[in-house]
Amino acid sequence: MAYESFTLDTFKAQFGLTYTQTSGARDVISPIAPSVTLTAILKRHVPLVVGRTSGKGRSEFLVAPILTEVRDILD
């Protein structure tokens, strides 16, 4: 199934998951400033994808570097 076709309801049904949203989660998680490296990567990649590419392209150019940054922070 294509990434754009997934919805939260479909995901919950397919995997038998429950989802509980709390309003206070943002209060518990402190913001973290992006690294100089991530900022530079995003400055280069954003013009390449805005209005020009698919969800897959956005994932490869924008989401992947952000997830790498999160991994680096958590390691």
Draw up the topology in text.
Blueprint: H1 8-15, H2 25-28, H3 36-49, H4 55-74
Helix pairs in contact: 3-4
Strand content: under 5%
* Number of DSSP-assigned strands: 0
**Low-confidence runs:** none
- Main β-sheet: number of strands, strand sense, barrel status? none
Number of helices in the DSSP assignment:
4
Give the distance, in angstroms, between the N- and C-terminal Cα atoms.
31 Å
The portion of residues assigned to helices is 55-70%
Give me the secondary-structure category: mainly alpha
Apparent shape: flat
What is the H-and-E element order?
Answer: HHHH
Report the average pLDDT across residues. 84
Rg is: 16 Å
Outline the structure in words.
This protein has 75 residues and is mainly alpha-helical. It has a domain of 43 residues. The chain has 4 helices and no strands.
